[in-house]
Amino acid sequence: MCGIVGAIASRDVVPILTEGLKRLEYRGYDSAGIAVLNDGIRRVRRVGRVVEMENAVRAEDLKGIIGIAHTRWATHGGVTESNAHPHVSNDEIAVVHNGIIENHEEQRARLKGLGYVFESQTDTEVVAHLVHHYFKASGDLFLATRKTAADLRGAYAIGVVALADPDTMTGARMGCPLVVGLGDGENFLASDVSALIAETRRVIYLEDGDVVALQRSGVRVVDRAGTEVHRVVHISELSANAVDLGPYQHYMQKEIHEQPRAVSDTLEGVIDSGVDAEGLFGAGSESVFRDIDSVLLLASGTSYYAGLVARFWMEGVARVPCSVELGHEYRYRDSIPNARQLIVTISQSGETLDTMEALKRAKELGQPHTLSICNVRESAIPRASRFVFYTRAGAEIGVASTKAFTTQLAALFTLTLAIAKAKGRLGPTAESDAIAQLRFVPGSIQHALNLEPQIQAWAERFAQREHALFLGRGIHYPVALEGALKLKEISYIHAEAYPAGELKHGPLALVDASMPVVVIAPNDALLEKVKSNMQEVRARGGELYVFADLDSHFTESEGVHVIRTPRHAGLLSPIVHAIPVQLLAYHTALRRGTDVDKPRNLAKAVTVE
Ligand code: M6R
Q1: Cβ(326)–Cβ(300) below 8 Å
Q2: N or C: which end of the chain has fewer CB within 10 A?
Q3: Half-sphere exposure for 302 (CA within 13 Å, toward CB)
Q4: Cα dihedral sign for 179, 278, 347, 397?
Q5: Distance between alpha carbon 562 and the CA centroid of its chain, in Å?
Q6: Residue 486 CA: which ligand 1 atom is closest?
Q7: 499-526 pLDDT, tens per residue?
Q8: pLDDT for 175-234, tens place per residue?
Q9: Is 2 among the residues known to form the active site?
Q10: What span, in angstroms and rounded, lies between the C-alpha atoms of 376 and 196?
Q11: Model pTM?
Q12: Residues within 6 Å of ligand 1 by CB
């Protein structure tokens, strides 16, 4: 989604801003822009990639010692240069903005009444004119930004510069992340630490309601009450090389192949030291795990599917009632609060607005026990949670989540064991058996990766199709959902997943010889039922593509293609079976020539509603 970078220095900031935008590219965007103060507001905007903006910047020899830049993912108004940020008011104020201003129509009408003329269809332009309006009256950019923020409703992070005050840059946040980077005699603003990592590791995470003024000599922050506050300075541990592609063609390919290492790193704590809740999830977690009477898992997209798998473990192993809900549904539902419930948010980015808002809602409802499973350190969701477990997948750049999913599953199984142990439901023998099973997982993932050549052959055929069905039952149904999501988001093939038992209640009508049906069918308690469902498909001429393990005893026959993982992974089988569906989606997309890492219309971190 949209990205913000700002810099105030005594050197040319254009390379800093351009490099920062490149580091934010993975988030997904459709246009890019930059504005610096240098004898007027000098602005360059381009539809398309940052590199196109960079070429134009070079051609115009743009330079300046204070400036703001932005990558836009369109919400209000089409993908056009005039809608790209920065937006300018009366050649005097320039603004970049992430998020959505909900009351933009009301503000637009008010500003038109004050004589302002609008040039774009964006909600952002009201911010530029509001700052202009207040700055004209006070000549104080910090005050003007605070007054503007007070007029806005919705979620936003903004960065502002004013021609008349080249020694100040301001920012404000509400609901969208905004960080300040501290340098020596220079300071920075960004929506994501990764944009600043080449310049500084000293960062301040602004809180909701904060407004900041950055000067070369320092920064000032006021909170939502208007009180000057000192926010903690963090030293970011993010690796500056995290985004290197190495020998791979795509980030998604790299990330799929990193999974044995990512899962093994994520499991390191539990494998080395056993199921020690306090060590794994934080001080005080064990007594909370002992006292809770249920678990609610909140997430979106792939992270939600990880939650659907975990429900089987929570109820089957820890014997704790567990529900799973999409964040954007939960936050608006009139649910019944339960102070003894553990709220677990699952998020790769830690920034997903729908999940963050669901967490806030749970807290507002008086649910005190919050735990986050997250891949990005220092991000918003873990910072708002009492307990945290960081998956150790490393930076995930491809929009399609892969290693985040399998590491989330590893983390959720660890959480299940910790809850079971705290409740006295995991004795020493069961604990060491479970850890022994976990030890095998990275190796089993590697075996699944070795199936790639066979999956490539299937992908040749899938690439010719426009529709696909994915089936699974029980704990493997979420893997079918994940397979369908991966395929649709990167290959644009319409794919749907159903619990196999549901087939005869409707989707069977879609099955004919042109509809490939993928079945996730390793050996589990429901395998015989799945086999019957497969017969229903074959009887209608449907072609079956079956992911099984050696214990499922499938043989190939006409219309039935089988790929087997060499080991049965028991309860942890969904982790292993995620690999072949990821590879199928990747190779199918490759054959169709889509932009695998940046699929159309999607963004990596979904920071708007
Ligand atoms: O960062 P999060 O895990 O909170 O993201 C949630 C979803 O937006 C994400 O999983 C999305 O569904 C992926 N593009 C799926 O591959």
Answers
A1: yes
A2: C
A3: 30
A4: positive
A5: 33
A6: 16
A7: 999 988 998 899 998 899 999 998 888 8
A8: 788 999 999 999 999 998 889 989 999 999 998 899 999 999 999 999 989 999 999 999
A9: yes
A10: 15
A11: 0.79
A12: 300-303, 347-349, 352, 355, 399-401, 485, 489, 605-606
